[in-house]
């Protein structure tokens, strides 16, 4: 039953709504604020780095069909669209390179997906930078704590379930929804928007990177519906037909404090545009390359944890990737390219490289097996051990436990800036790059986040208004 426009609150919804309402930028510790800004810089940089990719152009074309209020800028463009359409287009750019942060715990996902939605809505509302930082930080808490609570992936549901719910609560905070509205927004996100894990199996399609932007778009739509008076079904988690009935009971609690740092400080950032479970493999390849001649390799044996194998080596498509999305989720492919090139950039996924005979021949020398001791270390670590034999009978081995960017081996500010500048190089001028970077480092001082996003605008003819 619905009373006064508010669904009956099960305990899970009540905890989520109360958590969000109580959050306050002024209560955030300096470490959380700084780590939030580091992830904003990283995510915006990844989006700009993907700006010219065909799928990103396609997403912008879709977004340009729509006009309405509130209106948001599609990053890099001189025109605006609806907040929902901007969320989707910006989210596609953000996710395309698979270069943003990750949070592998009981389940896993990319909490930075929420950034496209929160910046887009903040743009539409002329929100100040402090409000945006608070919204992103609380959305990270929701996303990451949900991943810690239950593994929905193993039950056939995809990580966008986490992203949509984190988005609606972060956006709801920006919209200053009432308690009743926030509860309805939660219900209007969960009930209609379950996502299938099939998007991540077999030969991967462009929807692998589109599923989370779509979920975030749905979260924005749900928040706007609730603001305008729409109501959602009662007891969306714990009711007879609620989420518990689909995935089983879970006790989801969000706790922050001196003994439980904000989760935005705990996610793992990426050095390379590949699936997080392949980061250690690339680092190991770089070290091995210093010790041997790649053309003399006769055998390669990767030992790693079970989850890395399940995602990056347990399907025939991972041994003959035909798409960019599959290649960046292929352990043998990313290892072969790293050994051959001594670097790993987005050029590794060009159409020519995907059919490169030399890469294929090196992949054919790779076998991948689980080491149960390494599996026991995951998800606390992301371990990988690579053995190589060469034609002269020599053996080499390299092990990596915490790849650069892992919370236990974090990237420095200088490294994050270098990654941002590298992503920006093909997009805009050095002056523009530094202006955007400086504005993001000082986001809490911005009176209107739109002024920051305006700095991304391009004068390219195909994007002009």
As a percent range, the share of strand residues is: 5-15%
Largest sheet: 4 strands, mixed
CATH class (first level) name of the largest domain? Mainly Alpha
Secondary structure: number of strands: 8
Can you identify the CATH superfamily of the largest domain? 2-methylcitrate dehydratase PrpD
Integer count of domains: 2
Stated plainly, the CATH topology of the largest domain is called 2-methylcitrate dehydratase PrpD
Taking all residues together, what is the mean pLDDT?
A: 93
Order of secondary-structure elements: EEHHHEEHHHHHHHHEHHHHHEHEEHHH
Structural class of the helices, strands and pairings? alpha+beta
Write a structural description.
The radius of gyration is 22 Å and the shape is globular. With 465 residues, it is α+β, with helices and mostly antiparallel strands. The strands form three sheets. Strands 6-5-7-8 form a four-stranded mixed sheet. Strands 1-2 form a two-stranded antiparallel sheet. The longest helix has 21 residues, at 129-149. The chain has helices at 11-22, 30-49, 54-63, 83-96, 113-125, 129-149, 160-174, 179-190, 211-227, 243-247, 279-289, 306-312, 324-327, 331-341, 351-354, 357-363, 372-377, 413-424, 430-441, 449-454, and strands spanning 2-3, 6-7, 71-73, 80-82, 297-304, 366-370, 384-390, 395-400. The chain folds into two domains: 2-265, 2-methylcitrate dehydratase PrpD; 276-400, 60s Ribosomal Protein L30, Chain: A, CATH 3.30.1330.120. Helix 2 (30-49) crosses helix 4 (83-96), helix 2 crosses helix 6 and helix 11 (279-289) runs parallel beside helix 14 (331-341). The model has no long low-confidence stretch (mean pLDDT 93). It is built from 20 helices and eight strands. The relative contact order is 0.14.
